[in-house]
């Protein structure tokens, strides 16, 4: 992924061996969620999934335009992707990313607990509270 700032290219990350599974050959777009200090862009390689969708997230700092990949920290585990329920795309509510995780076998959607993440732009993390 390349970010362009005032004509200068910045390599943000490489997503090696990533398969895109989509319903058409049309280019896919990033979904954007605005925060006070940054914009966060989500890239979801698959259009459907049995246990929710997994998305990569990238932060673009509003002060300097620099971009970086984000990681997610939840219960001490750090991941490169965020799992969310197909019907509930993550949203910003009062400065927190609100996520309804995808459900797995044996877990009903009613029992899936919503998780709120705090954005740490400096360290490039979303941290679950």
Which features does this protein show?
129 residues; mainly beta; ten-stranded mixed beta sheet
Look at the helices and sheets and give the structural class.
mainly beta
What ranges have pLDDT less than 50 throughout 5 or more consecutive residues? none
**Helix and strand succession?**
EEEEEEEEEEEE
Q: What level of helicity do the residues show? A: under 10%
Provide mean pLDDT, rounded.
83
Question: In what range is the share of β-strand residues?
Answer: over 45%
Distance between the termini: 29 Å
Beta strand count: 12
Number of helices: 0
Largest beta-sheet details: 10 strands, mixed
What is the total domain count? 1
* Form type: globular
Radius of gyration: 15 Å
At a glance:
With 129 residues, this protein is mainly beta. It is built from no helices and twelve strands. The chain has one domain (2-6, 28-128).
Structure description:
There is one protein chain. This protein has 129 residues and is mostly beta strands. The protein has one domain (2-6, 28-128). The protein is 0% helix and 46% strand. The strands form two sheets. Strands 3, 4, 5, 6, 7, 8, 9, 10, 11 and 12 form a ten-stranded mixed sheet that branches. Strands 1-2 form a two-stranded antiparallel sheet.
Write the layout of secondary structure elements.
Layout: E1 2-5, E2 8-11, E3 31-34, E4 38-43, E5 53-61, E6 67-74, E7 77-79, E8 81-84, E9 91-93, E10 96-99, E11 115-120, E12 125-128
Parallel strand pairs: 6-12
Antiparallel strand pairs: 1-2, 3-4, 4-5, 5-6, 5-8, 6-7, 9-10, 10-11, 11-12
